[in-house]
Each structure stands twice: as structure tokens, then as C-alpha cells.
Amino acid sequence: MQTVVERELEMQLVLSPERSVPVPARLAYRTDDPYAVHVTFHLGSDAPVNWTFARELIVEGVFRPCGHGDVRIWPTKVNGRSVICMALSSPDGDALLEAPSSPVAAWLERTLRAVAPGTEHERLGLDDGLNRLLAPTTGEELWLHDPRRMWRPGEMPRKDEQPDAGA
């Protein structure tokens, strides 16, 4: 069963040290995509802007600067308020956004309760898939796929290596 943890909030798009504009945003976390967080920015255009990045980045970013390249996150104070800064970079441009720390931290705590750090892999079903892939097969199938039996192309196996027709 999938759980979605969402939070609507207003972020500030920093245009200069003296000027910023409000940007409505939605933070989303889905347990069927346990390593990622999704941020949707509603900029007043026809289509919102979506970003997806590792949950681990925001977990670390609420405490200390982290990230390299396209997404960097760090905590700071602006006019006496605690904020989380997000620097986003893409071929279309760069953006610096500030989010109030308290709602981000509360939302993040809810995601950590939904899927505890270190247990994300359990949500992906990888163990079930690997078990099916590595499950023993019947003897005939093992004979047909035995990697120790290597024949050259066009070469037939010896008579004693062929399975019985009635098997």
C-alpha cells in the first residue's frame, strides 16, 4: 500500500539580496518511490515546475550544507527567521529558494515515520524479485542452461549429454 506525505507551503524565490517573490510549492513523498522527494513549484504558468531529488539531501540539508551540482540545500537565518535554502540548477536556469524551516522539518519527520532511513529498499520489492530470479528450477531447465556446458556455435552436444526424449 502506497502512502503519500504532502505539504503545501510558500517559498521565496530570491531575485536579489533585497528582493524575493513568493512561490507556492508542494513537497511530496511517496512510499513507492522511497529514496526520492518531489517538489512542485506553481509559478502561475500553465504547467508547474517539478523537481525530484534524493530524500537524503533534504534530510542532511536541514542540518548542514549538502549537495553538489543541480541541487544544493542548507540551513540559514534570514531576517531572524530560520529557513532552508535550495539552490536548483538546470539547463533552463538557476533558482535560489528559501523555505521556512519548521514546516519543512515537520513534513520531513512525517516522511521518516512513513519509511525509516535504511529501510527504503524494503519498499522496492527487490528481495522478492531476486528470490524469483535466483529460485531453483527443474533439472531439465538446469541442464539446458548449465553455464559449465559450453559448446561452439553449430556444434551438437554428445549423445550422452542430451536429455532423454521421454523425460
Structural overview:
By secondary structure, the protein is of the alpha+beta class. It contains five helices and seven strands; from the N terminus they run ββββαβββαααα. It has helices at residues 55-61, 101-114, 120-123, 126-134, 139-144, and strands at 4-16, 19-30, 36-41, 49-54, 71-78, 81-90, 93-100. Strands 4-3-2-1-7-6-5 form a seven-stranded antiparallel β-sheet, sandwiched between helices. The longest helix is centred in the middle third of the chain and has 14 residues, at 101-114. It starts with a strand and ends in a 23-residue tail after the last helix. 13% of the residues are buried. The mean pLDDT is 84.
**Mind describing the biggest β-sheet?**
7 strands, antiparallel
* Residue share in helix: 10-25%
Whole-angstrom Rg: 26 Å
Helix count, DSSP H or I runs of 4 or more residues? 5
Q: How many strand units?
A: 7
Give the strand line-up of the largest sheet.
4-3-2-1-7-6-5
Poorly predicted ranges (pLDDT <50, ≥5 residues)?
A: none
- Cα-to-Cα separation, first versus last residue: 44 Å
Structural class: alpha+beta
Principal-axes shape call: elongated
Average pLDDT rating: 84
Helix-strand sequence: EEEEHEEEHHHH
